[in-house]
Amino acid sequence: MIEDRNFDDLAQKFAKNIYGTGKGQIRQTVVWEDLEQILALLKSDKPLHLLDAGGGVGQLSQKVAELGHHVTLCDLSSEMLKLAEQDIAKNGLLNQYRLVHSPVQEIGEHLDSKLDLVLFHAVMEWLADPQAALEYLLEQVRPGGIISVMFYNYNGLLFKNLICGNLTHIEEGMPHRKRFKLQPLQGIKPDEVYSWLENAGFNILGKTGVRTFHDYMQTTMVGDYSFEQVLAMEQKLCRQEPYLSLGRYIHVYAQKPLAGPEADKYKSNKDNG
């Protein structure tokens, strides 16, 4: 039985492997481009309040905090929270943060109000019930607010195994290989995530493939390219099909509709702005 993954035992290694690599740089770059679009949509004369759910060391939410916004970061791992606090302090952003030791499925108990923005990045694939966790977080978003979800793509996992010839592994259902401790527990099917968002009434605003071809390049390949070229090509292809749907991760962001007096108030503010 799958249980939610706690990274207390691997916090240092996880942070280094995820953020200190070319893979991490591609991920940070293309998702930040989307977040810039999201922040433009949420433009406000007051600081936004966002949640970094299962946020690890908060690499992307720190870039948002640098713009003056307030962040609640929660994580199941106390060791990961310690790393986050050190990194946030190093960057002089502790005043913008509240760090909460909590699973994402209980963070509502620590919130005083609904959120302008929720970041839920690379967490669902480590959970026993990813749908329930996502739907719980959708409830924490205010009308007009946005959720930013990045997940380990089942299609990308399947394609990687196909081109590596792991057909027996595919026929067995691609069970998690315990010897690969940093490999997510499961791939998440994009159509399911999109339907979970839409069934909750959210409007999908954009989708991006994260590492649409980088991870499929053979390590023995003697090609004519630099990392800068790879990054630029990823940026060029990541929002186009069929490349988008083959990303090792997919980033999708969706907005909760405005309703009633809240919608009228928002429209009035926009008209006056």
UniProtKB/TrEMBL annotation:
The residues that cross the membrane are none
Keywords, alphabetical: Methyltransferase, S-adenosyl-L-methionine, Transferase, tRNA processing
EC number, UniProt record: 2.1.1.-
Zinc-finger in keyword set: no
| Top EC class of this enzyme | transferase
This enzyme catalyses: 5-carboxymethoxyuridine(34) in tRNA + S-adenosyl-L-methionine = 5-methoxycarbonylmethoxyuridine(34) in tRNA + S-adenosyl-L-homocysteine
Ranges where the Methyltransferase type domain occurs: 51-148
InterPro entries noted in UniProt: Cmo5U_methylTrfase, Methyltransf_11, SAM-dependent_MTases_sf
One of the entry's Gene Ontology molecular-function terms is: S-adenosylmethionine-dependent methyltransferase activity
A GO BP entry is: tRNA modification
Q: Where, by residue number, does S-adenosyl-L-methionine bind? A: R27, G54, G55, D75, H121
Q: What does this protein do?
A: Catalyzes the methylation of 5-carboxymethoxyuridine (cmo5U) to form 5-methoxycarbonylmethoxyuridine (mcmo5U) at position 34 in tRNAs.
Q: What is the similarity comment for this entry?
A: Belongs to the class I-like SAM-binding methyltransferase superfamily. CmoM family.
What this protein is called in its record is tRNA 5-carboxymethoxyuridine methyltransferase
